[in-house]
Design brief:
This protein is α+β, with helices and mostly antiparallel strands. Helices cover 19% and strands 32% of the residues.
């Protein structure tokens, strides 16, 4: 398979990953996890919805939690576009592609466009939001991991190549990718618009499903502090993977599961990748594993993810066998 060519003059201007919307069963339990433990700022709330942001964010929300009955699911992920004109161009782009696209009203956002990509993943675009004070130097509001801002999403999809081609046609640039040794097949792809390695990541699996939303944190010691705090607050079992360091991107990370099973990644941010001569970095799967100094993730990290409401996941044509912690231990690896 070939790497898609970058589109330097995209049909509309997406600027960054913006927000995710999750359904939860118990807002009080979710608030205790996201606000009291992780340290998100509450922008607004009512009896059914909690709007959260990081301390470095002036836009109203980067995480929305909605009370819902039934199985907790992800509603959609959000992207920002630069202008109202870009919203119009986005609508025309999805109409031409024969993909769902409709205007909706969303609290605390400007005009919003709901779309679905070819995998069926529900996405929303907006150009503006209500503005809140940026609290990056208001240290009395810093708590837990002190989340700074949203960075990216990772989705599991049945066809990574197809997802990569479509999102690159919207102007996303491929910063890094992982391929099985000796092949050019796309296993993981890291796509970006804002100038660091990724705004959205696609990995193979039953999908579309939301694997995680990722938020940057300021200092390395915050990884250990938030894990200590999780243990003290009764959330030790919610620490799923890490702290550790990624091979691709080289960022420190910890993954946690919220009370409904939604996954969040906290990480130190990456390098810049915005200049026209920056070529995608290829990683052999074996080399990406060798660079890791922590133990592998449990199998659940590779296969479990949040379903999107109303979207039936489809299986990929081929299912991989990742080196999970269970396989690592069974093989007697050290």
């Amino acid at each position: 398979m070939s790497i898609p060519k970058p589109v330097y003059n995209p049909p509309f201007n997406i600027t960054r990953a913006s927000h995710s919307v999750l359904n939860v069963k118990d807002l009080a339990a979710s608030r205790r996890f996201y606000v009291d433990l992780i340290g998100f700022i509450v922008s607004d709330e009512d009896k059914d919805t909690l709007y959260l942001r990081g301390v470095a964010e002036a836009c109203h929300h980067s995480l929305v939690l909605k009370r819902a009955s039934g199985e907790p699911q992800a509603e959609r992920v959000g992207m920002r576009v630069f202008s109202e004109e870009d919203l119009e161009r986005a609508k025309a782009f999805f109409d031409r592609a024969g993909l769902p696209a409709e205007w909706v009203e969303v609290p605390h956002q400007g005009r919003t466009l709901h779309v679905s990509d070819p995998s069926g993943a529900p996405i929303e675009f907006c150009a503006t939001m209500d503005v809140k004070p940026r609290l990056v130097v208001a240290f009395e509001h810093h708590h837990g991991a002190v989340p700074q801002r949203i960075d990216h999403f990772q989705l599991l999809v049945p066809d990574v190549q197809k997802a990569c081609e479509f999102w690159m046609s919207m102007g996303f640039r491929l910063s890094e990718y992982i391929s099985p040794d000796g092949t050019d097949d796309l296993l993981f792809v890291f796509l970006q618009r804002k100038g660091n390695p990724h705004d959205i990541v696609f990995a193979p699996g039953d999908g579309p499903r939301l694997h995680h939303a990722a938020f940057s944190i300021p200092e390395s010691y915050h990884f250990f502090y938030v894990c200590d705090l999780a243990g003290e607050m009764g959330f030790a079992a919610n620490i799923e993977f890490g702290p550790g360091r990624h091979g691709p991107g080289h960022a420190l990370f910890v993954y946690m599961r919220d009370p409904d099973g939604h996954r969040i990644e906290l990480f130190n941010t990456h390098y810049q990748v915005m200049d026209i001569e920056n070529e995608p970095v290829r990683w052999d799967a074996s080399h990406a594993i060798q660079r890791r100094w922590q133990l592998p993730a449990r199998r659940q990290w590779f296969v479990e993810a949040s379903r999107f409401a109303g979207v039936a996941p489809r299986e990929p044509a081929r299912k991989g066998e990742p080196m999970s912690l269970e396989k690592f231990l069974a093989a007697g690896r050290r």
